[in-house]
Write a structure and sequence with these properties.
- This is RHS repeat protein.
- The chain is elongated and about 60 Å long.
- The protein is α+β, with helices and mostly antiparallel strands.
- 20% of the residues lie in helices and 42% in strands.
- The protein has one domain (2-114).
- It is built from two helices and seven strands.
- It has a seven-stranded antiparallel β-sheet with strand order 1-2-3-4-5-6-7.
């Protein structure tokens, strides 16, 4: 599935059960010929950040979203992994464990923050 407007393009993929597998979004950017390559790269990254663009992959446990992972999208950024926990046999969320790449804090440390 694909969506596009004047500012960005977004691509989604779903499995046969209708569960989202990934989302990839990218800001439209036309490099400025008068500027250098580093300036153009920085400006494109700024636009990506401004619009929240990037790549996210989703993992499932049956019908429940189990996790999502978004790798670092640009230089100096951190990636993010989120695990979701639900009450047994239900869709009622109980906890969410978030880990940012490079923060040095483990998922276990972040789970302690939930308590």
């Amino acid at each position: 599935m694909h969506f596009e407007n004047a500012r960005l393009a977004v691509e989604f993929a779903y499995d046969a059960l209708g569960r989202r597998l990934f989302k990839h979004s990218s800001a439209h950017y036309k490099p400025c010929r008068e500027a250098g390559s580093q300036w153009n790269r920085n400006e494109h990254e700024r636009k990506q950040r401004e619009l929240g663009c990037g790549f996210t992959r989703y993992g499932w446990d049956g019908d429940q979203l189990a996790w999502e992972i978004s790798p670092a999208q640009y230089e100096g950024a951190t990636g993010r992994t989120v695990h979701y926990l639900f009450e047994p046999g239900s869709f009622v969320p109980v906890a969410q464990a978030v880990r940012h790449e490079g923060t040095g804090r483990s998922v276990r440390d972040r789970l302690r923050d939930v308590n």
